[in-house]
Amino acid sequence: MKSSARRSGSKRFALALSLSLAASISAATSAAAVNVGFDDLASLSDVAGATLPGVTVSTALVLSEADVQTLLGFPAAGNWATSPANGLLNTFAPTIRFTFSVPVTAFSIDILSIENDGLTLPIALRGAPTDLDQVPTTVVSDTGLIGNSGLHEQRLSIVAPLGSSFFDVEVMALNLCMTPACASNETSTFWLDSASFTPVPEPGTLTLLGAGLAVLAGALRANGRRS
Predict the structure, then answer these.
(1) How far apart are CA 37 and CA 101, in angstroms?
(2) Alpha carbon of 135 to those of 106, 131, 132, 157, 164: distances in Å?
(3) Which residue in 93, 103, 82 sits closest to 37, CA to CA?
(4) What CATH fold (topology level) applies to the domain 34-200?
(5) Is 17's pLDDT higher than 80?
(6) Distance in angstroms (rounded) separating the CA atoms of residues 69 and 187
């Protein structure tokens, strides 16, 4: 009976340690996402001069829905922004680049493609890998997705390949060939809002994970000897 009880106790102990190990790995390998909005920025300003958490953005016009309606003539109020009011328009350059303070494993943003002469261009995200031997990752929007604005809208996401990460992500409109090689040179072709990205875990976090694994392994060996 005592031997059986010890074996049962060892199994429970091993299960508890396994669950603790899984939780440690999950916490260490999945950093919290950083959310970035543009409502604290002045409409009609350049986002390149803004201080944002964990990221800098190349030149782009910060624009409120009200100013969109005034300047572009679209009925944007209540229809364009996924945050309360402001987004980014690629007025100053065809491409908007997000450059991160530390590499990221994933990036998402709300896009809206602005119809011009009846033509709706797809929007692409291109992630530049930290490993320069790897090719960039590209995702392209589905222009069949139409939002409340009556225009093409989509939450567009890009994820780095396993073991890789991005140091920046470019957003661009595409012409007919549907690849970044055919990026449009036109401006004011898309609107962006509500960005989110996931930084690579800091080295200190991974060091703590390694220490935790060593402690758990030692505890398992000690418990095995006792049983």
Answers:
(1) 17
(2) 16, 9, 7, 18, 11
(3) 82
(4) Jelly Rolls (2.60.120)
(5) no
(6) 17
